[in-house]
Amino acid sequence: xxxxxxxxxxxxxxxxxxxxKMQGNYSQLIADVMLTGFLGGFTTFSAFMIESTxxxxxxxxxxxxxxxxxxxxxxxxxxxxGQRLSS
Length: 87
Fold this sequence. Notes:
Oligomer: single chain
Strand content: under 5%
Number of helices: 4
Mean pLDDT: 84
Structural class: mainly alpha
Radius of gyration: 15 Å
Number of domains: 1
Helix content: over 70%
Largest sheet: none
């Protein structure tokens, strides 16, 4: 799931940057469906929470900390990279 979230972050950054560059030459509905619908469903926050909680319940705090850290920092970095690639 970590790879899916990171790949989704890259895609969201790229598509969001592309849409910013287009400056309104697209339907807001299309933007909502693509960014929050399709890509939001691709990167599910609920699955992230379930995996994190299961790790804590199984006393794997270090693994959970690593997973959460890489997910957040990596996701932000890849979203930024995606946005830069689109411009």
